[in-house]
TrEMBL record:
Similarity-based family: Belongs to the secretoglobin family.
Keywords from the UniProt entry: Secreted, Signal
Name of the protein this chain belongs to: Secretoglobin family 1C member 1
Entries under Pfam families matching the protein: Uteroglobin
InterPro entries registered for this protein in UniProt: Secretoglobin, Secretoglobin_1C-like, Secretoglobin_sf
Subcellular location: Secreted
Protein origin, superkingdom: Eukaryota
Predominant subcellular localization, coarse grouping: secreted
GO CC terms of this entry: extracellular region
Signal peptide coordinates: 1-23
Length: 95
């Protein structure tokens, strides 16, 4: 499990880096992606933050597995991640 989690994290970093290379605001993309990953569905990822990208079948499988890992978190831990996201989004609004 640790190896697959590392691979998924590396894929996420590459995806965010790709957003930087295309000139997209990386923090906005990342926050939208993370929010959808935490509280949305895999389909919402493809219709939302990833809609302008051609996501291949292997990447979709990896994202589905990553979403499954997040969904399997203890409710307390998932709630803390959502609170952290809200805190980060709030600090961006103040800047």
């Amino acid at each position: 499990m640790k190896g697959s989690s590392t691979l998924l994290l590396a894929a996420l970093v590459l995806l965010c880096s790709w957003g930087l290379a295309t000139g997209e605001d990386s923090s906005e993309f990342f926050m939208d992606f993370l929010q959808t990953l935490l509280v949305g569905s895999p389909e919402e990822l493809y219709e939302g933050p990833l809609s302008k990208y051609n996501v291949n079948a292997d990447a979709k499988a990896a994202l589905t597995e990553l979403k499954s890992c997040i969904d399997d978190l203890q409710p307390m831990h998932k709630a803390e991640l959502v609170k952290l996201l809200v805190q980060v989004l709030g600090s961006e609004d103040e800047a």
